[in-house]
Design brief:
single chain, 774 residues, alpha+beta, Ubiquitin-like (UB roll), 16-stranded antiparallel sheet, cell outer membrane
Amino acid sequence: MKSNFNIYCKYLFVSGFAAVSVSCSNTKFLKEGQMLYIGGEVKVENDSLSKKEKNELKAALEENLVPKPNSKLLGLRPKLYFYNIAKEPKKDKGFNYWLKYKVGEKPVLLGDVDREFNRKIIENYSENKGYFNAKATYDTVSKNKKAQVIYTLRPGARYLVSNVKFQQDSTLINREIQNFANKTLLKPGKPFDLDVIKDERERIDNGLKERGFYYFSPDNVIVQADSTVSKNHKVELNVKLKEDTPDLATEQFSINNVIVFPNYNIQDVKRGKYSVPMNPDSLAQYAYDDIYVIDPQHKFKPKIFDRALYFKKGDLYNRSNHNLTLNRLISLGVFKFVKNEFIVSDSLKHQFDAYYLLTPRQIQSLRLEALGRTNSANYAGSELNLNWTHRNFFKGAEQFKAAVYGAFDFQMGGQENAQNLFRAGTNVQLSIPRIVAPFRFNSSSAFVPRTNITLGYEFQNRTQLYTLNNFNAAFGYVWKENARKEHELKVIDITLVSPANVTAKFYEQATTPAARRVVEKQLIFGPTYSYTYTNTMLPKTNTIYYKGTLDLAGNITGLVTGANVKNDKEKKIFGVPFSQYAKIENDFRFYHKFTEKTSLATRFIGGVAYPYGNSEFIPFSKQFFSGGSNSIRAFRARTLGPGSFDPRTIEPGILIDQAGDIKLELNAEYRANLYKFLNVAAFVDAGNVWLMHDDPDRPGAKFSKEFLSEIAVGAGVGLRLDFSILILRLDLAMPLRVPYYEKGERWAFDRINFGDSSWRKDNLVFNIAIGYPF
């Protein structure tokens, strides 16, 4: 084994040396007189600046230099090499075209660099940062057909702000601007910075927009800098309104009429069916409180707009309510396009009418889905879904969804006695765009809160073993504080599992009490709550996702009835023992973006479920599982754990779904884009599940202080085919640490033998899945 390892190392060394040699030969493709541009460097010469200030200025200036040199990877320029070795294609397609212009990168030459332009950029940027007397020069250094441009900046002393003045006069607009002076971003003693000045103008504009100045613009504010009134490199700033500011921008506007077109169509406007603006005399028949809803066919209840619109007649315009209204109209889910116009209706009173032009989505839709799938438990199958959606069920933007589905899974290879699985079911959901409750719920969020009512039934048959009838009903709420924070509370979530047709073969295979719990009658009811926070939609280098879930079942009922299964006081409802437990689960994810095409994704899952009162065990359907395409990918689905329990002790053909009451899992995945839709990944997964109590049939399953030695580890590589509407994921993984091996032998490195076909069969796990694992 060691000799093979040495051969691999030599091969990698030779390959790496060859890659370096080839990459270094990029200059041989240059024509006579051409120089490969390898970048620009800025040197800052100023003894009065600290090392930190110099480094910050240097980094900012170098970022502004153009053009950028050819990209590098590990010190090499492979894209440039591909461009050089590819033949010039005769057509805009084919392998050579793809290699040269899609994978490859055209050489950046010294002749492409406008050094005088970069010099001016350096001086201008420095002046914008307060170095008013900045001077820059440049020099070119070349060697072996490679050239670098060295820019030398002598910035001089940096000017600081000595005083900030806001123009004062008796006009309404200036009185309002004065209200913002105490929170100005322009601070005496701080360096002069043009970017801060731009931010200050935006701040003033935003503040005025909140106070009715709809037509105001940041360009209407000027910040004058005067360096003559102070000595010692100081500058005084004077914030004032531009003299040529339009009169309309200085007026404070309020809302006159609020007019909604909930069935707006541009073609109807062209045909003269209605016009914008409307004649005020024609609005009376459409009045609803302070809103006019132009809906002759009565497709929508006017009350939904009363809840969604934050502008009422007589209100002073402000941007927050403007954006809030648009977002709430969109989040109703019934409108495809939402357009807003403000049209001056009374110039003397400074009033305008607010028009909302809403184009509905298709109210009803019917969708048939046929799916094929496979998983890491060697099961393959198909699923057929028929979904019907009505987006305005009671004319109040209520969404009604009904679905009927059927699925069949069969096992490919693996155990000879494996049983196939057939599922069929139906479910319906009514989603109401408000909180239906005996108490008043006020939300100023941009997202409409919803009340969800669901009913479902699923028939599940595992051939030759058993049949399960699953009934589910839930009533609850979903609301979002903002785009990052979401709450979901199910006031009641009921699940009834009723087994049927349990065969003798099942009892022959399910020889332990744990395995037989899958066919026990289960009645689970209680509230569940989940909180989600994410900022992954923001263009940031580091983003996070967190979801915490709390599931409480049978708690009040157990307390009222005095249920205690350990004291032989098991209570039943309609002849079925109800479950009583508390379960909490946390899912935390961290994403770091290295470049636009490379990133690192990590995830931590921690959960615990504790049975008590009327339950000795957690219901099988509510336990934790590990392994599979979205978990620890080096182990097949639901085969890992609990603890150090050895699944090899189970006889072939026996059901081996392994569940636990405690779960810990950590995943890390490096992702990179190769070409358009083709992405690659390298990943490491670790974790396991454990039981709260001892199980004599599964030694080593209980959670103990030895849990760290029972963590399973797997690693692998994968391809992701990202077609925008669908992401197909292919992962190949192998176990690095197996918790059920003897202590001291759990790391798998000493057992790796790629040439052994039986080893590959037992240790290389291939997963096919849709979407990213996290």
